[in-house]
Amino acid sequence: MARNKSHKARVFCIGWHKTGTTTMGVALLQLGYSVLGCRLDMGLPLLQGDKELALEEAEKFDALQDVPWAALYRELDQRYPGSQFILTYREDKAWLNSAAKHFKGLDVDLHEWLYGNGVLLGNEQLYLERYQQHNKEVRAYFAGRDDFLEMDLAAGDGWDKLCTFLGEPVPKKAFPHTNKGQHNYTWKDKLKRKLIALVPNALRRKRVEVLERMDMHDGRNRFNNHEQNKKWREQNSI
């Protein structure tokens, strides 16, 4: 889904990964924004000093969430004046626990650009300090500005706070809470996953075909990054 110019401003979710970025992305989709999510393939160009490729990708969408976008907030602010910025955050220990369970010992070049080391395992303090540094620097950069919002999803921030900031009507549906780690699954989450696993692959493929005919995205590509991330994982055997 390309940029919808009916929206007044671009929205950049500049919370670090594992702070509810997927939830924010889904919320913005439900408000009608086109959203670009994490792009693992941007790691190598960024390591080589090329930020322009990432900024050109940002041009195509109403909203961005996750990395590398969160770390490019200064450049995005300069390139796209009049945009709105949202910092999602969570308690430090909770963030590190979630990141450790998700990233484990994977070596990711995008993480090397973000942290100076692509592997979290054994570098937990380095990762935690970078997360803390990001939040501190973002708050200092946007201090006193009315185009900046902080959201603590774990504390219950949701539609009212988000929609007031964006000037959007509050949807008549529950605020989404998605992409929970399996260690946080409720019994309902576990049951849903088991039921989905029972659906034959042929029916899953048929669902994708129907969505494409309706000019809608398969859920895997809701953030316009599925093919790029899949290709990166294949190339890096991850």
Explain this structure.
The structure is a single chain. The protein has 238 residues and is an alpha/beta fold. It has one domain (11-178): Rossmann fold. Helix content is 45%, strand content 7%. It is built from 11 helices and 5 strands, in the order βαβααβαβαααβαααα. It has helices spanning 21-30, 43-47, 52-58, 73-79, 92-103, 109-115, 124-141, 159-166, 187-197, 201-213, 226-235, and strands at 11-13, 35-36, 63-64, 84-88, 148-151. The protein has a 5-stranded parallel beta sheet with strand order 2-3-1-4-5, covered by helices on one side. α5 (92-103) packs across α7. The longest helix has 18 residues, at 124-141. The radius of gyration is 18 Å and the shape is globular.
List the helices and strands and how they pair.
Elements: E1 11-13, H1 21-30, E2 35-36, H2 43-47, H3 52-58, E3 63-64, H4 73-79, E4 84-88, H5 92-103, H6 109-115, H7 124-141, E5 148-151, H8 159-166, H9 187-197, H10 201-213, H11 226-235
Parallel strand pairs: 1-3, 1-4, 2-3, 4-5
Helix pairs in contact: 5-7
Index terms:
238 residues, alpha/beta, Rossmann fold, 5-stranded parallel sheet, 11 helices, 7% strand, globular
How does the helix and strand content classify structurally? alpha/beta
Number of separate domains: 1
Could you tell me the strand content as a percent range? 5-15%
Named CATH topology = Rossmann fold
Count of extended strands: 5
Largest sheet: 5 strands, parallel
Listing every helix as H and every strand as E from the N terminus to the C terminus, the arrangement reads EHEHHEHEHHHEHHHH
CATH architecture: 3-Layer(aba) Sandwich
Provide the spatial order of strands within the biggest beta sheet.
2-3-1-4-5
Question: Please, how many helices?
Answer: 11
CATH superfamily: P-loop containing nucleotide triphosphate hydrolases
State the helicity in percent bands.
40-55%
Cα-atom radius of gyration: 18 Å
Mean pLDDT: 88
Detail the poorly predicted runs. 181-186, 211-217
